[in-house]
Design brief:
Layout (H helix, E strand, L loop, with lengths): L1 H20 L10 E7 L5 E11 L2 E12 L9 E9 L2 E8 L10 E10 L5 E11 L2 E7 L8 E2 L1
Antiparallel strand pairs: 1-2, 1-8, 2-3, 3-6, 4-5, 4-7, 7-8, 7-9
Length: 152
Amino acid sequence: MRHGIRRLAFCSALAAGTLALAPTADAVTPTTATISFDCGSYGSGSATLTASQSGTTATIDVSTSAITAPISVGANSVKSTLTLTNNGSGAVTFTGNSNPAIPAGSPVSTGPLKGTVASGDSLVATSLKVVVFGITATCNATSTQSPGPFVF
């Protein structure tokens, strides 16, 4: 009986130590930001950017009223590239062709767009390129991302 209690205490201490030394999940802050885009003849409006991170891989989902679908768009048929500046210089791109089905007249949502980040990266969105049915809409930021940069 005494050995059983000692073994239980040892295993409990070992488990607690293992949990204490386990790596923590990477976290980007903030996780959500808004920005306004001008997409030329395709329209203008705001976008919500939702970021997440796992190690050096990050994803950003984009939902924007800047571009609306003139006709129904099938799932996974929108190719998007989101360009962000890193620490005020250099560019990081997030790309993908994942999207939900978009009914005619509805705002375009795309993502997750995938990119590579390093600890300390501070990213601010500057442009969004969306390709639907071979037609490219290039959208340039007309406002500052709010709240501030995504910090990884």
